[in-house]
Request: fold
Amino acid sequence: MPLLGGIRPPIALLCVLILALAGLTAKVLGPGKETAAPRAVLSSQQYFAEDGAIAMRASIDERVTDLNRTARALSSGSPVKPERVLADLGRAYQKWTGTTVVDLKSGDVLAARGESIPLGWLDKGVLTGDRALTPRMVRLETGDVRLMTTAVLDWDDRPQQLLIASSGLSVPAIELGPFRTMAVAAKDGEILATAGFERAEGLNSDQERKELAFLQKQMSRLSDQAAARAERHPVRTKEPGSRGYPGVSGTLVGGEYNGRTALAGYASLASANPEEKKSAAAGLGLTVVALLPVVQQRDGEQDRGRGLYGLAVSGVLVLLGLLAVAVLWATVQRPLLRLFLESRRIARGDLTRPVSVPRRGEAARIGSALERLRQQLGGAGRGPVSRRRSRVGGRGSLALTAALLLLWCLPVGLLLNRTDDSVSVPTTMVNDQRDRTELIADRLRRALNEAHADLVSTARLIGADGSRGGADTGAATGRLLKETLRTHPRYQALYLVDGDGDGDPLARAGGSPHAWARGKDLPPVRVSGKGDRKPVIQAGAPVPGREGTTLVGEIRVEFLNSLLARPGLGEVRVVGPDGLTISANGGYLAFEKLPGRSLNDLARAAAVRTGAGPVANGLLIRKGDGVTVAAAAPFSGGGVTADIGWTVVSRQNAERFQITPYEREDRSVLAGMLGLAAIILCLGWIHLVVVRPLRALAASAEKLVDGDLKSVLYPRYQDEVGAVVRSLELLRQQAQAHRQGRARRMSDPDPGPGPHPDPGPVGDIGTDFDIDGR
Reply:
């Protein structure tokens, strides 16, 4: 018999799979590995650091883009005095702590605003080479680190001037909570900026000050580790085929103090799409580290009985598996091997001993046929054997085996370790959902403020060109709008409107414009298009020197949706003051209401002003058989969108959290599915190579004993069934040869009186053989 043929290999494989699944079940359903915190808490810190890195990278890239675009726009027009350049730049953007214009030929400072910018770092490498005019980090005399962004002002009739803008490296300005801290680390692990340690001034007890000193020490140590890991290639740090964050990110576990363990997530600054667009911030080698001390959660006492629990479940599987294998051995394997031996014996001419006929199934039908053939071939023994037919046969044995194994698979997969709305969710997960939602709201608010600031800057450039006059003023305005649209993909259309804004735009770039409503009480950033397929988000800025003229930019909804797409937050929506959806990270209808009364109440509660303003809220919703974590964060802070009334609402099912109850439920479902896969594999194998060929063979054997000697029996497999087929084919050939010889003798004339030839020994194909047994 071949190695993978016959009845033995699938039964042996079934035994191996049952034992392997039993061992796996005992391990995964037993006591888990003792960790300082659930994996969900660790993953949440990694997501938090990634969100901070994305926000910081976008902020730095936006500064570089704004400065370069402003310099190109100024260089394409008439020369402007340095003081005017810095004044317009300061009025349009409030993101730089200091700005300076330097004459590149003489090195003199032509104009300066804000804090003093040291020029000792300026050298030839700033203006030439592969890293020319790229952002650089410079340390001031005070010890603070500043990010220097540079651009060149180039007019035909004047020497080139270098425009320098200085800004601080800071983490997103959000509420980190009473315990979380964030830091920005350089390549060597040096901490350049921190947030969250400011509460040191309010500490009153020595215990609190000791804990703060512990956290500062942990932040320094973990920042060194994070900076070292950030040097690795981002592809090699991820599993094959995984996508997610484009940079290097992960988690770190620090030391313990006073029952708390320091957990940290880190993420390097990386381009959103490194293959299509390079990021200036990604080349700085910065890493964002988020640190959170969590209470140690030891599950050892709760899991002491889990070992016996897992062994009991696996023991039941082994017991049912033994019964299933015994059924297959008794009803399929043993009768088939008996048929194999009996058919080979009869084919070799041993017709004296009766055939041992199995009791049921296809084997019984084939055994009965063999016995009738033995009797017809002249063997001595018991009398005629009745035909045995079975409607169940081998398929019934497989069904019984499957039922025995399903007695374990179905309860384990569908009933064991099931969770409901009583699952205990760590408070850290609720707080992280709230803080990350607030971080997304802050990022969205900053993006809209940047969009409005770009419009203000562009409007000032348009006003400056209009004040100088000239025949090509309209053409220059059109070129400026197209350049702004190309530089900032957040816009879908840019256009100049005059008067009431209902007429044709004075200049435009991009898609079709929408009506711009006028009114003193209307905010500069507004939403319209209610009833359409998607909202129309507009931002406007008046053009200086041109009364009643406004530069309007329509912001793409897809741009806002992309800012909301973050793993580990679930469904995220942006709603207006009326609670209607404006943007979301998944499928939604424009201006639809929030799903569920709880989310509507949460959004309204978050928009209520308390003290200095509205605050973010988190909520744990227990309803039915599930648990949902939700959060709402209103727009707060500076800029024109601070009072817009938008709120970011997020929710996700707690089943996605990697906490112990849900992990055990997932493992139970996995064990049941693996058992079901083993049933389908092994029993399907037996059905294909044994049961189905055996049923066909039983029908062929019955036709053979009924007189069908013309149908040739071909063995399809080199196994036990194939051996029985070969034996029956030999018997068919013997019977066919005898019928042909008998027909020839009956056609010969009567030889008359005299001696006749010897008819031959008993048991051979004699002259009196009748295939029907008569």
